[in-house]
Amino acid sequence: MAKDAGYTAIISHRSGETEDATIADLAVGTAAGQIKTGSMSRSDRVAKYNQLIRIEEALGSKAPFNGLKEVKGQA
């Protein structure tokens, strides 16, 4: 129902995270469209972005970046 109304999910981490990058796998696996993991100012956050890059490399053209199309009213 929410997706039909133009809404999307955002997968978000908690403060005090570890370098476990499972959140990146969840964001891609659920086709959430967005992930909130903070700026790349700490190694625990960089680990999550690195996992997203690895996933993109593994999926190749099957992993499109939708940009603002994922944000309601922005595209």
Automatic annotation (TrEMBL):
It comes from the Bacteria. The keyword Lyase applies. One of its GO terms (biological process) is glycolytic process. Pathway: Carbohydrate degradation; glycolysis; pyruvate from D-glyceraldehyde 3-phosphate: step 4/5. Residues 1-73 form the Enolase C-terminal TIM barrel domain. Its EC number is 4.2.1.11. SUPFAM superfamilies: Enolase C-terminal domain-like. InterPro entries: Enolase (IPR000941), Enolase-like_C_sf (IPR036849), Enolase_C (IPR020810). One of its GO terms (cellular component) is phosphopyruvate hydratase complex. GO terms for molecular function: magnesium ion binding; phosphopyruvate hydratase activity. It is an enzyme of class 4 (lyase). Keywords: Glycolysis, Lyase, Pyruvate, Secreted. Belongs to the enolase family. Catalyzes the reversible conversion of 2-phosphoglycerate (2-PG) into phosphoenolpyruvate (PEP). It is essential for the degradation of carbohydrates via glycolysis. This is Enolase. The lineage of its organism: Bacteria, Pseudomonadati, Pseudomonadota, Gammaproteobacteria, Enterobacterales. The gene is eno_2.
